[in-house]
Task: structure prediction
Amino acid sequence: MVMPISDMPSVSVIIPVGAFDEMLAAQLRALADQDFEGDFQVVLADNSGSGELRQYLETCPLPARFSTVYVDASEAKGAAHARNRGADAATGELLAFCDADDVVHRDWLSTLTRMATHFDLVGTAVETSSLNGERALSWTPSLAPEHQGGNSFRPFAIGASMACRAEVYHSLGGMNNEFAASQDVEFSWRAQLAGHSFSFDHEPKVSYRLRDRLGPLLRQSYRAGYGTTKLVGEYRRHGCPPLSIRLVLLRWGVLIVRNPLLPTSITKLSRGHWLRALYIRVGELRAGIEYRAIGW
Result:
């Protein structure tokens, strides 16, 4: 169903940009090709402080489909801070969020906008098959779309494909930059606990790019394990169940049994996959102890 132009909220798409990468051009082309019938702006929140993004915007032709706003968001590191600074500069009634190195599908914005007519915070699943090679896919097996956006506490939007009413986003104070990872999950939980409505579309609307270099993958994996477990600890007082000590021990047992000293034909794990899991477990264990997130 096509939404009448008169019913469409004004929309701002916010993209946090860390280290500048020319993959941003593919995302901007995808945004220019949206089937969304209304006007929208794209806010690029530069978290790098290097000046490369500003130079790129000044020297490269940009799509005429949308207006572009540059925001210097380098005063504090973190994707949450960049998203918040972008939201401060945005003029839209609806704030849509995607990442600089992914590629949104053609109906991404129209899907989020349609969902947001009924809910305060919305999100969609993502897929990894389009943009990634065999190595990256073997290192990071992805959840099937029907299993994304959920956990044992409350559902959540994925930061690479979400939208929130601007008044709701600002009333909640935006995302929490004290979390090095899982800021999108924390924001989703906080919004729902504050009484805001939420919906998630399990049909993928974004092609998500995985890490294909080991160093960045392991850093991301440690942050993910630490951040997710910190979140569990912080939200136990709100009813979030603790991380089961039995599950923690089982995960470490699996790592030991399937270690890369054994042939891949036996472990069924690539070395990158095993190392990624190891770094997640280390981050998980550290945060579990620090934030008392582990229980029976």
Q: What stands out?
A: The mean pLDDT is 94. The domain at 5-207 is CATH 3.90.550.10 (Spore Coat Polysaccharide Biosynthesis Protein SpsA; Chain A).
